[in-house]
């Protein structure tokens, strides 16, 4: 056992899963397949169940497509920085937040991905439990959630190479089952599903659009983690963009269509409950839930391990970090009460990370014109030391962005949602404050000279 551990540890280190910059070798097609499988997931599908009958099915599908495309622009932009630098997402925050300041988004990212991992394992466990209970009478959702997470962690500890091999296979399986379900639901015609009476107390169209964009933001934490392994910027950008859009639209559309079908047939259809849909569509939909969690959750566990490793490059190795975080993720997957807080959890992700990605995009593409120094990969880089390892501009803008997002989400609800306004406000503030800080620094240097 120890010998195998050492061999796997050495293999992961050689494959740059320990945080060193990489020269990608994955084709655009492989990146597409990874992102295609990534969001063909039960959480995305169940998010789609929140939209109908607040709006018609046709309106929901249009909003899903529009929000996904807008959100994908941010995901692709951040992922492309990973392709250029060879570094994962949270390592990129050292450039704007400072070497020490980057620990703020890193800590938040680990917490967020841990929550994602728990929620997905729970949904898979609840679904597996439902199927087994129907067949045998035995029920233990917490146990099945834990067992699902054990499988996920077992996949994630093999690093990006293992994910690159498994994800395309799972994508094909999931898409085949989803196609069967769509054909079955649309058998009686689309018009009947689209003619449901609206729920006046449900989500508004802009609220739905905002949720869809926020879903892309929640996935952007993993964008550079995966896209740094792309062989070319073009392949990485096109592969991740098309893969994310295709998977998100398919998964959310499945959830929205399933709820519409249930309501049209006089069934009870509470949103965000996989057992209700599985009860109607049986084992095929249960298969979608299970395989999607295997595909997606392995990326979530990989992402949180990568974030921890890159918080201290060269000091923390991938395998022990994966095993340690894996134990926590397995233990927490039994906390089924978290399922009742999913929408609040998704909102919190947007509040915390929208300003982070606005800062990264402006810092890299506008202020630094698409180039970071090679020393960004070093834990003690002096090029990004700022003041004691902290960039006060980024930290303050992040705090303001979080406060603004919270305000327009909970206090003065924005008629256009919170995601896009928060991104634009954070981006504008960071650009203006950074330019002002540079001018002040230049003036001080001239006076001192």
From TrEMBL:
<keyword id="KW-0812">Transmembrane</keyword>
<feature type="transmembrane region" description="Helical">
    <location>
        <begin position="32"/>
        <end position="52"/>
    </location>
</feature>
<feature type="transmembrane region" description="Helical">
    <location>
        <begin position="283"/>
        <end position="305"/>
    </location>
</feature>
<dbReference type="Pfam" id="PF02133">
    <property type="entry name" value="Transp_cyt_pur"/>
</dbReference>
<feature type="transmembrane region" description="Helical">
    <location>
        <begin position="344"/>
        <end position="367"/>
    </location>
</feature>
<keyword id="KW-1133">Transmembrane helix</keyword>
<dbReference type="InterPro" id="IPR001248">
    <property type="entry name" value="Pur-cyt_permease"/>
</dbReference>
<feature type="transmembrane region" description="Helical">
    <location>
        <begin position="166"/>
        <end position="183"/>
    </location>
</feature>
<keyword id="KW-0472">Membrane</keyword>
<feature type="transmembrane region" description="Helical">
    <location>
        <begin position="104"/>
        <end position="132"/>
    </location>
</feature>
<dbReference type="GO" id="GO:0015209">
    <property type="term" value="F:cytosine transmembrane transporter activity"/>
</dbReference>
<feature type="transmembrane region" description="Helical">
    <location>
        <begin position="58"/>
        <end position="83"/>
    </location>
</feature>
<feature type="transmembrane region" description="Helical">
    <location>
        <begin position="138"/>
        <end position="159"/>
    </location>
</feature>
<dbReference type="InterPro" id="IPR026030">
    <property type="entry name" value="Pur-cyt_permease_Fcy2/21/22"/>
</dbReference>
<dbReference type="GO" id="GO:0005886">
    <property type="term" value="C:plasma membrane"/>
</dbReference>
<comment type="similarity">
    <text>Belongs to the purine-cytosine permease (2.A.39) family.</text>
</comment>
<feature type="transmembrane region" description="Helical">
    <location>
        <begin position="317"/>
        <end position="338"/>
    </location>
</feature>
<feature type="transmembrane region" description="Helical">
    <location>
        <begin position="418"/>
        <end position="437"/>
    </location>
</feature>
<feature type="transmembrane region" description="Helical">
    <location>
        <begin position="242"/>
        <end position="263"/>
    </location>
</feature>
<feature type="transmembrane region" description="Helical">
    <location>
        <begin position="203"/>
        <end position="222"/>
    </location>
</feature>
<protein>
    <submittedName>
        <fullName>Putative hydroxymethylpyrimidine transporter CytX</fullName>
    </submittedName>
</protein>
<keyword id="KW-0813">Transport</keyword>
<feature type="transmembrane region" description="Helical">
    <location>
        <begin position="388"/>
        <end position="412"/>
    </location>
</feature>
<dbReference type="InterPro" id="IPR030191">
    <property type="entry name" value="CodB"/>
</dbReference>
């Amino acid at each position: 056992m120890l010998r195998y551990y050492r061999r796997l540890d050495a293999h992961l280190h050689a494959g740059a899963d320990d945080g060193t910059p990489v020269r990608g070798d994955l084709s655009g097609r492989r990146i597409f397949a990874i992102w295609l499988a990534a969001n063909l997931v039960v959480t995305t599908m169940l998010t789609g169940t929140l939209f109908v009958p607040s709006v018609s099915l046709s309106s929901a599908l249009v909003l899903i497509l529009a929000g996904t495309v807008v959100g994908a622009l941010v995901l692709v932009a951040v992922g492309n920085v990973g392709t250029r630098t060879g570094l994962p997402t949270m390592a990129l925050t050292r450039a704007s937040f400072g070497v020490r300041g980057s620990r703020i988004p890193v800590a938040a990212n680990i917490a967020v991905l841990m929550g994602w991992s728990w929620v997905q394992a729970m949904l898979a466990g609840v679904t597996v439990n439902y199927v087994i209970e129907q067949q045998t009478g035995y029920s233990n959702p917490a146990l099945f959630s834990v067992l699902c997470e054990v499988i996920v962690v077992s996949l994630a500890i093999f690093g990006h190479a293992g994910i690159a091999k498994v994800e395309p296979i799972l994508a094909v399986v999931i898409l085949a089952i989803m196609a069967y379900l769509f054909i079955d639901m649309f058998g009686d015609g689309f018009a009947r599903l689209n003619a449901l009476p609206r729920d006046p107390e449900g989500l508004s169209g802009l609220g739905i659009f905002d949720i869809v964009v926020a879903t892309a933001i929640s996935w952007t934490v993993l964008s550079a983690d995966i896209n740094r392994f792309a062989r070319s910027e073009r392949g990485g950008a096109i592969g991740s963009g098309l893969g994310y859009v295709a998977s998100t639209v398919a998964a959310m559309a499945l959830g929205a269509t399933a709820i519409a079908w249930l309501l049209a047939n006089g069934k009870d259809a509470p949103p965000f409950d996989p057992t209700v849909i599985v009860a109607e569509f049986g084992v095929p939909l249960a298969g979608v839930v299970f395989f999607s969690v295997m595909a997606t959750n392995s990326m979530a566990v990989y992402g949180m391990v990568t974030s921890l490793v890159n918080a201290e490059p060269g000091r923390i190795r991938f395998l022990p970090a994966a095993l340690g975080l894996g134990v926590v993720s397995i233990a927490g997957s039994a906390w089924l009460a978290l399922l009742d807080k999913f929408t609040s959890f998704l909102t919190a992700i947007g509040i915390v990370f929208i300003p982070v990605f606005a800062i990264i995009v402006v810092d890299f593409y506008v202020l630094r014109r698409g180039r970071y120094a090679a020393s960004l990969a070093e834990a003690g880089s002096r090029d990004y030391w700022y003041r004691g390892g902290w960039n006060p501009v980024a930290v303050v803008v992040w705090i303001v962005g979080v406060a603004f997002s919270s305000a327009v989400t909970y206090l003065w609800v924005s008629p256009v949602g919170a995601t896009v306004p928060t991104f634009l406000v954070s981006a504008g503030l960071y650009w203006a404050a950074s330019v002002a800080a540079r001018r002040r620094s230049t003036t001080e240097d001239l006076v001192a000279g």
